Amino acid sequence: MSLSRFNALQTVEHRYDAPLEALEGIPTSIASYFGENVFDDASMQQYLPEIVYLSVKASVQSGQKLSRETADEVAVGMKKWAEEKGCTHFAHWFQPLTGKTAEKHDSFFTMTHDGRVIEEFTGSALVQQEPDGSSFPSGGLRSTFEARGYTIWDPSSPAFMMEAADGKTLCIPTIFVTYGGQAQDYKLPLLRSQNLLDKAAVPVCQYFDPAVDKVTATLGWEQEYFLVDEALFNARPDLVMTGRTLLGRPAAKHQQLEDHYFGSIPERVYAFMRDLETECHKLGIPVRTRHNEVAPAQYEVAPIFEEINVAVDHNQLLMDLMERVGRRNKLSVLLHEKPFAGINGSGKHNNWSMGTNTGVNLLSPGKDPGKNLRFLTFFVNTIMAVYKYADILRASIAHAGNDHRLGANEAPPAIISVFIGEAMSKLLNQIANGKKTDGQAVKRALDLLAKLPNLEMDNTDRNRTSPFAFTGNKFEIRAVGSSQNCAGPMTVMNTMMGLQLQEFRSDVDKLIAKGTEQNEAILMVLKNYIRKSKAIVFEGNNYSDEWKEEAEKRGLNNFATTPEALDVLGKKLAQDFFSKAKVMDASELEAYHAVQLHIYCTKLSIEAKALEEIVNSMVMPAVLRYQTELAQNIGALKAIGLDGDADFQKDTLKAVLKNVSAIKEGLAKMHKAFEKAHHADGIREEADILCHKVRPQMDAIREAVDELETVIDDQYWPLVKYRELLLLR
Ligand code: ADP
Ligand code: MG
Fold first, then answer.
1. Which end of the chain, N or C, is less surrounded by CB atoms within 10 Å?
2. How many domains does the chain have?
3. Which residues contact residue 136 at a Cβ distance below 8 angstroms, ignoring those fewer than 6 apart?
4. Do 315 and 232 share a structural domain?
5. Which of 293, 351, 361, 454 best tests ligand 1's pocket when mutated (most atoms within 8 Å of CB)?
6. In 3-state terms, what secondary structure has residue 702?
7. 517: helix, coil or strand?
8. Across residues 101-123, what is the average pLDDT?
């Protein structure tokens, strides 16, 4: 008998002979090829007439539309650049609400009216395309008779060349909208939120420095992932179909010894990382850090931070590259939040801050007390924003995969709170409790801040349990799932900060109008905010049960599952939030909510069906075969009068029978619940049934199967085991 599990294991045995071709010929100096596949600033200067180049720059800076003539000229330059690189096609590259990227390729080749073949790329093709978007989730924004969706060029993110197989394609970052211009993607709301933040933050910056005329949000993501050999991956239908193992008993040795974290990187993985980094660097993605993560076979990659829109595009591009590069290294990249039970899952920490055109990081405290009121302003306003809009932030990271991770022992809970570290806590307390808010008090607070040793600031990172932590010069949002598009939570961050800063400016101006001195007015407002937002700040262990109780007392919500967490999107809080900020109008928000619920239900349905199939067609046949053997063995012993010595066989058989009936029961109940979900009254109810009725049965089935895994003859077990998936190097 040839089980695919053993064939796969044999394939892995021979992997080590494979030459690491990908590593040959990589120049050692990154600078010599960094960004070579990007139509970046330098290429624009080279390929565009100066006046066109300046128009593009000005348009990106101001957000004004480019004229058609200018677009035509950009298209000419871009095509020349792309053709010299060997591109034959161009594609509008966009980020639909599936969370992945999408692209529709068109050839430069076209035919003139008199039948001649020419290569052409016009301004209109650059600016707008009409992919057949009818199969992308629209949440009802596009009815079938009006299924058209449009992709529109985003000049603020540079075009790039994608090399895949033998083909080279010019990729143009675009937004994806309906005929009526409504957002159908992650990028458009993100761009709108960045615009809001800019407009709201500049007037606040001008309290401190009139030279500031642009504020940009910055993002540095940290991407966690697992790697498993491609052959082993293919022998696990659950990984293939759902991205996670629906079954599988944690190996006796997993991460207890903590010997993987920052350990030496296995050769094959190292080759993959080098290969991936090279591809990233060619595309201008400034990845810099790589290391092992806590769980076996888990790794992390992180770049130098960038302007938020470009950083989001780069993360999306990275996830795509990982898959391609993995394939040629015979490794499968798992981006799922919880591919394996019993060990850590994967997150995507989003380090977020704001920078000015004058080169200042607004969340960086300095040694100069005169400058620290600005830092304090942005710092306290961030806390206040999270305090007010925590539920919306929670909704932005809600999805099926993340449900397995949030609140598990290694990941932040579903309760949003802010960690600021001991030093900043003390300082805020002092300000909040100070009696006076005169010039004297301002000076004292700022002096105090200036005296904080760097070390204390850096130590803020020690609490790894918080979902939202101040890490010295930025906030780190740790609850984002590894497979998610960063744009979702980043749109919410920018929006809440934008709205909050508008309110701040108005609160301060009111006091100034009444004759209060500016710095004192600022401090008075901040003091008020610190007092109001106290409930959201938590310095303790977020993993503990005490925190759950404490959070409840403080009135903080704990939405443990996706359907619950998404509910806020249908409420006034979120409707006002997005519409006031002009980030999503009512119909866009409604559509977004519907799509998220739809994706959730679809994912759970696929999991339930996959589980049923694997259990029925793979697990049960193996179990029954072994069951028969045990029964025959006992029968044979009995025939010769020795069944009194068959305790081991009998006990094992009993355990098998017990778990088999648990599986049978679980499958029946799951099936029934699944049918109920199918006939639910609306998508919200369907999500609820899948979440609270189907999922528990999946867990029950898993428990029984995982128990069987420890007793069934290893030679019969059809699924690649955890130790094989995770510990082979
Ligand atoms: P770690 O969190 O692992 O200790 P760092 O603090 O150096 O490492 O940085 C983590 C991430 O934070 C990196 O991706 C980095 O680019 C990002 N980062 C640093 N400064 C900023 C900033 N001002 N804005 C956004 N991200 C930043
Ligand atoms: Mg970090």
1. N
2. 3
3. 96, 97, 98, 102, 149, 176, 184
4. yes
5. 351
6. helix
7. coil
8. 85
Q: What is the pLDDT of residues 421-446, one digit of tens each?
A: 988 898 899 888 877 656 677 777 77
> Ligand 1 centre from 304 Cα, in Å?
7
Whether 538 and 626 share a structural domain: no
Q: Tens of pLDDT along 661-671?
A: 999 999 999 99
| Same-domain check for residues 384 and 445 | yes
Q: Where are the beta strands (DSSP E) in 101-249?
A: 102-107, 109-111, 117-119, 128-129, 149-153, 160-164, 167-178, 215-229
Q: Which atom of ligand 1 is nearest to the CA of 304?
A: 16
Look at residue 590 and tell me if it is in a domain. no
Place of tokens 């995507």: 348
CA of 349 to the centre of ligand 2 (A): 7
- Angle at which helices 187-205 and 372-396 pack, to 10 degrees? 160
Atom of ligand 1 nearest to the CA of 303: 14
For CA atoms 549, 554, 559, 564, the dihedral sign is positive
Query: Is 272 in the same domain as 383?
Result: yes
489 domain residue, yes or no: yes
In a shared domain, residues 141 and 268: no
Q: What's the CA-to-centroid distance between 222 and ligand 1, angstroms?
A: 8
pLDDT single digits (tens) 152-181: 999 999 999 999 877 899 999 999 998 888
Q: CATH number, domain at 50?
A: 3.10.20.70
Q: Report CA Rg, the chain.
A: 28
- Tell me, yes or no, whether 539 and 569 share the same domain: yes
Candidate from 293, 474, 486 with most ligand 1 atoms within 8 A of CB, to mutate: 474
Ligand 1 binding pocket, CB closer than 6 Å: 218-220, 222, 302-305, 351-353, 361, 461, 471, 473-474
Provide the residue count of the chain: 729
Can you read off the two tokens belonging to residue 370? 């005169």
Tell me: do 177 and 200 sit in the same domain.
no
Q: If you take atom 26 of ligand 1, which residue's CA is the nearest one?
A: 220
pLDDT-derived band at 117 (thresholds 50, 70, 90) equals: confident
Q: Which domain holds residue 723?
A: 599-727
